[in-house]
Specification:
InterPro entries: Dockerin_1_rpt, Dockerin_dom, Dockerin_dom_sf, EF_Hand_1_Ca_BS, LRR_5, LRR_dom_sf, Surface_bspA-like. GO terms for molecular function: hydrolase activity, hydrolyzing O-glycosyl compounds. It comes from Sodaliphilus pleomorphus. By secondary structure, the protein is mainly β. Among the domains are: about 90 residues, Ribonuclease Inhibitor (Leucine-rich repeat, LRR (right-handed beta-alpha superhelix)), CATH 3.80.10.10; about 120 residues, Alpha-Beta Horseshoe (Leucine-rich repeat, LRR (right-handed beta-alpha superhelix)); about 140 residues, Immunoglobulin-like (Sandwich); about 70 residues, Immunoglobulin-like (Sandwich). About 10% of the residues lie in helices and about 30% in strands. The protein is built from 6 helices and 48 strands. Strands 29, 30, 31, 32, 33, 34, 35, 36, 37, 38, 39 and 40 form a 12-stranded mixed sheet that branches. It has a 5-stranded parallel sheet with strand order 1-2-3-5-7, with helices on one face. Strand 1, helix 2 and strand 2 form a beta-alpha-beta unit. Helix 5 runs antiparallel to helix 6. The longest helix has 19 residues. The chain is rod-shaped. About 40% of the residues are buried.
Amino acid sequence: MNKMLKIIATIVMAAGAAVSSQALEVACTAGSLSSAISDCNITTLTVTGTVDARDFKFIADSLNRLTAVDMSGATIVACEQPAAGSAYASVQASEANALPATSFFGKKSLASVQLPAGVKSIGFAAFAGCEALRQVTIPATVDSIASYAFSSTGLTTVTVPATVVSMGQGVFSRCPALASATVATTALGDYTFLDCAALSKVVMGKNVDAIGNGAFAGCTALKSLTLPDGSALVRIGNEAFVLSGIEALDFSGMQHLESVGDWAFATTPVKTIKLPDAVTALGKGAFFYDTALTAANVPARATAVSDYAFAGDDEAAVGNVLKQGHTRIGDYAFYNVSTPVSITIPGSINYIGTKAMAGMTGLDTIKALPTTVPALGDSVWAGLDQKTVNLDIPDSLVAHDYAGAEQWREFHILKTYRQGDVNNDGRLDVTDVTTLINVILGLPVQSFNSLVADFNNDGLYNVTDVTILINMILADDNSHVRRVKAVDEAAGNSTADKLYIDDFDIEPGHTRTVQVKLDGSQDYIALQCEITMPQGLHIVGGSIVNASLNENLSTPSRLLSDGSTTRVIAYSMTNSVIKPRNGAVLSLLVKADDDFASQGVVAIDGLVLVDRANVRFDGAGSTAMAGRTTGVGVVDASGFKVYAHDRVLVVESQVMASAQLAAINGTATNLLVEPGRNEYRDIAPGIYVVRLAGKSYKVAVR
């Protein structure tokens, strides 16, 4: 008997369970759903009629075993705030056709939903956590979807209709099975598909004007994104694709796209990115540590390559990123991008940020186009051996500015120019010769390119460079060359060959023609020297002329700023050998002022001689005595007479005296002077001052 009762009880319980699991259809009046359902264990529910926020509150709180809900025959009506103390006091007032927040939140077994007819909005987290929900149709009546509405559901595919104009944050975030999405809405909200690891296909509608912050962050299966040409896309938000699997993005047809947010494509396997010219703002770290990136662009209208923009992108083709129109390269912009061997800095760049190119150890050449040296942050090229990196500055006129600027000057500076275009007029002709000569003589010039004047790279501008320039003009040499860093001044070849003037007499107030003679051991085609006159003597302006046998020898000259030294150049446009006439190559007219002393020393120094092979030689100096009686110092009332001949200093005196012989280098020797003629031998050639009886006598020993 007891056994039979147990069997009957089991059958009754099973029957009850079967009834509770059956589909239930309810014709509802708003707010009455709870009274129409006596068994909350139902799994399938179909509702017709009208419903409001109170009915959805009942579903959320009580129907936890639902697997399928069909509300396509129901209409959501407005709900006023229920009275305090009532069963639904916690329910918020809601509008008609608004699916309330958390309506089906956390219903892990819910696999199928058909939304009410005419629904216009889907509330906050309405289906969040519905892990079994594989599909849902969002009606074309919906215009807004609140934050996290379908977050962490089991959706595998989703279509957002074009009627949706507002989306909250994370609407489909963390849906692990979501593989494809079609989005026709006008704005893709922040974090819409955050961490949807299976999402591999996204089709964007033409009307999408914004991709929100973090919209595809963590979508590791997403390799590409399809957007139609003519898209209305204006903005890509911060971290929009960070940590995603995106490999290629082509936004080049998005002519309305204006901004790309901070870290938008950071740490992805992206290889190529194309941005349209319309972009005006590129966010910080936009392509940060995209280690596979080989091709990307920053439109010129963006004006700046942002901080950290390409940091760590070892394969990035940096040379194709920078464009004329960019004015700023941000801090760490190309940090540790070690593969590129060259980079061109556009002429519009005026600032390069801290460590912007630090770690770019593969660099061989930087081409700098700015004509004003860009300002720099700290340690811009940290980690580079700058002296091994060429800095190519096509505008040679500003190369000196770079060479003098902090950090820039550490590079191996190159300049490109047309060799020989000394006056910067784009031509190579005799005006370059005269310009160079004027510079050597210290005359003002309208334009002078110092980098093309030192032809033999010895650190000097002199007659050697003039002769090389003349040869270039004769050969019609239009070559362009590259110059490395300036070298230290090189010493010329020394020679004992010299220019000299014979001692000569001249009276105060008179003029005299003087010959400058060449004592040479070989043939020369040009020369340069400086002739210094003593106080009271000067060379009459314009009087230095050719005295050689060469009719075409030119002899430009210039009085230097000290007022006593004249620089002279002798050359011919044919570079003919200078042939002295009776030893003379130059002739000059010397005038003695009325206050000229009885004697003085004429010195020839700074002699440069150029041979037929354009080899420069530094010649010897020479001096000559000029006075009323050659070689005589002064004869005064005390009877002293001081002069020199054949390396012998002579002092004639009528009395016993002591004297001091002072050389121009400051050394001095005491002399004993006896009555009569005193000769002092073995004195080195040079200019001396003899101090005797309170007076000084200048004398030249030769």
